[in-house]
Every structure is written in structure tokens, then in C-alpha cells.
């Protein structure tokens, strides 16, 4: 015959174990639910981290294409996909399999309005307005500044991501192939046939590209305002690279200009508080979309 005391102890022990087991199961259920919830949130976050790329041939093109990547792609992937889209939608195929993309003028831009670019653009715009006021008594200089202000106002600017964009560069197996992310714009233009001359000139000059011309040849075409001669100009190559080209007879070193380049002729006799314009305008033009 079993002892009542033993039965009572056994019952309490079983009850306690059952309660502990129930608590453990509840805790496991809660942990599982939390894990599922976290995984769901992670999946949503991954989906939300898509990199979207608008592909176009120019800032004012009527047709634009869109490519999306999960996560952050390599530049080579963006270039390859973008080129495939442009080629697939080209109106015609150039002779001798010539590429429809002018890689020297290609640009990858962050479409977000970065504070640095916004600040630079505002500084240039404000200082050009002040220069117009300072030179309002000189009709020729005033007209030159007005023309430059109009040129910049009609241009499209985005934050340029300075990376190589030639497709062959990546096909050769370059180790320089960074990740990019965000809302991007890839501009893959066709080859232009002009060179811009802007800045201290009587009027903005859209000169025909000549393969044997150097900066001084294009400057000679434009009527400059500098009465003391020009020793150098700033060249913004179509890919956004900044270069100083010497133009005086005593310091000239011939350098190539690519089709689509912009030559900025610096202003002379600027008020001291506006002297940064000769530096800031070329920096802004680096972010100009072809």
C-alpha cells in the first residue's frame, strides 16, 4: 500500500514539471514567433535596398530606361546592363560595328540632391548675380556674365560618381570595381561633335570638334574679354575630369581635348570677394550631365 505522503509529493512534482514544461513551450513559441517576425523584417529590408538605375543617352532624352538590382551592384554590372539596354533600343546600328555608346562621355550620377552639390550650385549662382551687379556699367562684361548664368541655368546637374565607365576597362579584369547603391542615373551618350568655350568670352561658343585642335585653337575662335592675354584655361573633359591647359606661346603644352569637352576661360579683374568663381565654376561643370 502506497503512502499518502508519497502520493502527494509525486503529484506536486508532476504538477511542477507540467508547469515548467508549459512555460518552456510558451517561451519557445514566443522565440519562434519573434524569429519569424525578424526574418520578415529582414526580408522587407533587403527588398527595400534595391539599387535603381535610370539609363539614358542624355539629360534631355525623351526615352529613359530603368534597371533594378537587389542590393548594391558592382559598377561593371551597371555598365554592362546599361549598355545592353541602350544597344537593344538603338534606332540604327552604326557601320563596321561601331559602338553606339561614346564611353569618354559616359557618366554615373547620384540622383539625390547632395548638400555639397546644392551648396556649390547656390554659391556659383549667387556670386554670378553679384558679378552682374558689379559689372553692370561695362556692357560687354555684363553680357558675358549673363550668358554664362543662362548657360548654367539651362544645364542639368547631378552628383557625379567618379568611377571608370568604359566597358572594356572592366572586361579586361580591372580590380577597380566598387559597389554602388541608391537611385542612380547612367548616361551613355552618342558621340558629340562639338567643344564648348564659356566664361570670359563675348558669347558662349559652340565650336565644331577638330581632332588636331588644342585648347588655344578653340579659344582663338571665341572672342575673349581678357585684355592681358591668357596663360591657361580649365578644360572639363566629357567624363568630368578637370585639366589645366596652358595656352600662352611661352608655356603651351599641347593636350588632347575629347569631343564634348568644355573650355572655361577664367575671368580677369574679379572683385576679391568673388575670386572663387574661377575655381568653383569648373568644379560645378564636373557634375553637368551631357
Outline the fold blueprint.
Layout: H1 4-48, E1 51-56, E2 65-69, H2 75-88, E3 107-110, H3 115-134, H4 139-153, E4 159-160, H5 167-171, E5 183-187, E6 194-199, E7 205-208, H6 215-221, E8 232-236, E9 242-246, E10 262-265, H7 277-285
What keyword list fits this structure?
single chain, 290 residues, alpha+beta, Outer membrane lipoprotein wza fold like, 7 helices, five-stranded mixed β-sheet, 40% helix, Ubiquitin-like (UB roll)
Instruction: Kindly report the name of the CATH homologous superfamily of the largest domain.
Output: Outer membrane lipoprotein wza domain like
Q: What's the overall average pLDDT, rounded? A: 85
Q: What gap, in angstroms, lies between the N and C termini?
A: 100 Å
Tell me the β content.
15-25%
Would you kindly provide a written description of the structure presented here, covering whatever features stand out?
By secondary structure, this protein is an alpha+beta fold. The chain folds into 3 domains: 16-48; 49-111 and 158-191, Ubiquitin-like (UB roll) (Roll), CATH 3.10.20; 114-157 and 192-290, Outer membrane lipoprotein wza domain like (Outer membrane lipoprotein wza fold like, Roll), CATH 3.10.560.10. Helix content is 40%, strand content 16%. It has a 5-stranded mixed beta sheet, with helices on one face. Strands 7-6-10-8-9 form a 5-stranded mixed beta sheet, with helices on both faces. The longest helix is centred in the first third of the chain and has 45 residues, at 4-48. The chain starts with a helix and ends in a 5-residue tail after the last helix. Mean pLDDT is 85; it is low at 1-11 and 21-46.
